[in-house]
TrEMBL record:
SUPFAM superfamilies in the cross-refs: P-loop containing nucleoside triphosphate hydrolases
Compositional bias segments (type: Low complexity): 1-16, 630-641
Transmembrane segments: none
Domain of life: Bacteria
Lineage: Bacteria, Bacillati, Actinomycetota, Actinomycetes, Pseudonocardiales
Location of region: Disordered: 1-27, 621-642
Name of protein: ATP-binding protein
UniProt organism field: Amycolatopsis roodepoortensis
């Protein structure tokens, strides 16, 4: 039998064995593929390097202001080391001369820079620290040539001195954070991307190129908006690009650029509101930041309170360029600050007040809220303020003839009395001012539409309430009482023609939101940006007299959750002395609010049940005058519900001169001095009823309200006479 052999198993194919030589065509494609792959890798590497350089430049741009102290320290170090090196080759007398020279150069350089940027340094509140830094720099440069540059203690002194003198500066230029408190930490102000990151970066780069081209083609040319200028150092960041604008010395300034922002924006293809000009390293090198496509995060998650030493701040909202946030300065060393919010209807004024109030509640500060509109401005503050005064009028503990300003009298007396008792406490305890604590809390009086309140006359003093509160504001900041006003108007009448009140309220805390009427902005500083240029949508504003007053910000969106946030925090508890000084109206405030709510409900029921003619009479009857008892000479209280009027509910504050002496009187109107006035014709009576709110009315506005001609209004005013009306000039009148 033939031998049979088993064939050996096939050996496994090794993947790393040499492969058959490809054909020439296949080899060429492989080489091309390899080259293409290598080129793609090189391109990717270049892009990564470019992106890294952009990020580094952007990081440097974001931290440019933070690096100012280190730049000064580096210059000091360079000068001192140069002097030290020079002294190694000289003898003792020359050594002293070199040391003195370096110290003199440091002193002269610091003085020159401080003088050059004095305005910015003063606005930042860093004058004393810059002066101290200049002296320290001089001392370091004077000593280093004598001790040698290798002396470790000299470098430690330079580093620690820089940190110590610059700490406050670094705190002020970055978003704040609470220190040593249980308050909500400041959330980062991040930009919300509107597109994919890669697409956004491409859009920013493309925009930067187009801006450079448009600037060279239209702005810098002879006869252009900024002839001879140059746009350099583009820095790309998230959703914005920044440039350095090189101006011609003596011909252009940063203020000129700000005035031309709208036209420059039109020239480079952007809206003026998206362009921000700011000071640069030199007066002729300002910066221009253009917002490309971003919206700052304005979501509200609770109050952001910043504690910097003895200074307390409340964050309102982020700047639109993403760098930091605007803050309300609540209190400083031994004092409480006042403030003012300006904005037309729909600008977000009341929402800003609610954000401030939420921060005050978190700090444990007592909130006294007055709304001349009867609580319509902010239901959250009406329901949750520590003391809510709804409307100007009140008959609580007030003679009937003064009920039309009852709440103003209550507020004025309460503030006056608390100020007196706290002044006595300061004297007794040897205090220099007031420091807020939860045991002895500060009080913040917030008044919306304050022009309606401050322009009224105080019958007790004969002054406007604005004048009386202005005199209080001179001293109350050291007694723990501040005032925050809000209005649609910014003229002297807003403050009751009281310069002291205006100065006290706007110094340091002046927030302006969008305005629609230019004539209502007459008192804004000349350097302030125009509030007419702010964006629509609510919440956009400028913070005047700050280092970034020309940069727009937007308030965080508290929406309709203000009541929820306020209710979630415990109310302040006023100390016993202050509560006693505030008086019975303050102590019974909760019962009073409940009583007025019940009266309002009863009035609505009566209005619904009454015939139309009677119901309309109820709306216009107002508070009734006490009936005079001719036999005894005393006033008798009116019978309950007499005349069917709405005296139990505030409607419009009816001044005494506009009240009828009796429901039977057909036209007699009581004059301010109590002398019976002559009967008025129906048309003149309508004018008097229109003017009874105590505000200044223009004849044109009266004509529109009454549906008659302006000439007819002037005729009625002549028939009323000067004994009952104040002629304010330019066609404006107010009831006496």
């Amino acid at each position: 039998m033939a031998d049979t052999k088993t064939a050996p198993a096939a050996a496994p194919v090794a993947t790393d064995l040499p492969q058959p030589t490809p054909s020439p065509a296949t080899g060429l494609r492989g080489v091309l593929g390899t080259l293409t792959s290598a080129r793609d890798k090189v391109t990717t590497a270049k892009e990564n390097v470019t992106q890294a350089r952009k990020k580094v430049r952007a990081l440097g741009w974001r931290n440019r202001r933070a690096s100012y102290p280190w730049n000064a320290a580096a210059a000091t170090a360079a000068l001192g080391v140069a002097g030290s090196v020079a002294t190694e080759f000289t003898d003792v007398p020359v050594d002293l001369a070199i040391a003195g020279g370096t110290g003199a150069v440091a002193l002269a350089g610091g003085w020159a820079l401080a003088k050059k940027y004095s305005e910015q340094i003063e606005k930042a509140g860093m004058t004393s620290r810059v002066q101290a830094g200049t002296v320290a720099s001089c001392a370091w440069c004077l000593t280093t040539p004598l001790t040698g540059a290798n002396a470790l203690e000299m470098w430690l002194a330079l580093g620690l001195g820089t940190v110590a003198l610059s700490a406050r500066w670094w705190q002020r230029i970055r978003p704040g954070y609470p220190a040593g408190t249980e308050l909500v930490l400041a959330s980062p102000t991040d930009l919300v991307p509107t597109t994919e990151p890669d697409a956004e970066a491409t859009a920013v780069a493309t925009a930067a190129e187009s801006i450079l081209e448009a600037w060279d083609a239209t702005v810098t040319v002879p006869g252009g908006l900024v002839p001879g200028s140059k746009l350099t150092e583009p820095n790309l960041a998230d959703h914005r690009v920044s440039f350095t604008v090189v101006l011609q010395p003596g011909k252009q300034t940063v203020d000129d650029l700000r005035a031309l922002a709208g036209r420059i924006g039109s020239a480079i293809g952007f809206f003026g509101k998206d362009i921000v000009f700011d000071y640069g390293t030199l007066p002729t090198h300002p910066t221009m930041t253009v917002r490309i496509s971003a919206e700052v995060d304005t979501s509200y998650t609770g109050p952001v309170v910043i504690v910097e030493g003895e200074d307390l701040f409340i964050e309102i909202g982020p700047y639109v360029d993403g760098e930091g946030a605007v803050r309300y300065h609540v209190a400083g060393p031994n004092s409480v600050n006042s403030g003012f919010v300006l904005g037309s209807k729909g600008s977000g004024k009341s929402r800003v007040l609610e954000i401030i109030a939420d921060g005050l509640r978190a700090l444990g500060i007592e909130i006294w809220w007055m709304d001349p509109q009867g609580g319509a401005s902010s239901k959250a503050l009406k329901d949750h303020a520590d003391w809510s005064l709804m409307g100007l009028d009140s008959d609580e503990h007030t003679p009937l003839e003064l009920a039309y300003i009852g709440n103003m009298l209550h507020l004025w007396r309460a503030v006056s009395n608390v100020a007196k008792i706290r002044e006595a406490e300061n004297v007794a305890m040897g205090l220099d001012g007031f420091t807020h604590t939860r045991e002895r809390p500060a009080i913040m009086v917030m008044i919306d539409e304050c022009h309606k309140a401050f322009n009224l006359k105080n019958p007790i003093t004969g002054n406007t309430f604005g004048y009386d509160f202005g005199e209080l504001d001179r001293v109350t900041r050291k007694l723990g009482i501040g005032f925050i006003g809000a209005s649609q108007i910014f003229t002297m009448e807003t403050f009751g023609n009281a310069a002291a009140l205006r100065s006290g309220m706007i110094t340091g805390n002046l927030l302006i939101l969008r305005m629609m009427e230019k004539s209502h902005c007459g008192l804004l500083p000349g350097s302030a940006p125009s509030p007419l240029s702010l964006r629509k949508g609510g919440g956009y504003g400028y913070a005047i007299d700050t280092d970034r007053e020309h940069v727009m910000w937007r308030a965080r969106h508290i929406g309709d959750r203000a009541a929820e946030y306020l209710a979630a925090k415990p109310k302040a508890t006023l100390d016993a002395r202050a509560a006693k000084a505030a008086g019975p109206v303050y102590r019974n405030r909760h019962k009073t609010a409940a009583r007025y709510t019940e009266k309002a409900m009863a009035t609505l029921e009566a209005f619904d049940a009454a015939p139309e003619a009677t119901a309309l009479t109820m709306l216009t009857s107002g508070p009734r005058q006490p009936e005079q008892n001719t036999s005894t000479g005393t006033s008798a209280a009116p019978a309950a519900n007499a005349g069917g009027g709405m005296a139990s509910v505030r409607i419009l504050p009816v001044r005494p001169s506009a009240q009828t002496t009796s429901t039977a009187a057909s036209g007699a109107v009581a004059a301010p001095d109590g002398v019976p006035a002559a009967d008025l014709k129906p048309g003149a009576q309508r004018v008097m009823i229109l003017l009874r709110d105590g505000q200044a009315w223009h004849t044109k506005d009266m004509a529109e309200a009454l549906g008659i001609s302006e000439q007819a209004v002037r005729g009625h005013i002549r028939s009323i006479g000067e004994t009952r009306l104040d002629n304010l000039g330019k066609g404006r009148y107010r009831i006496k």
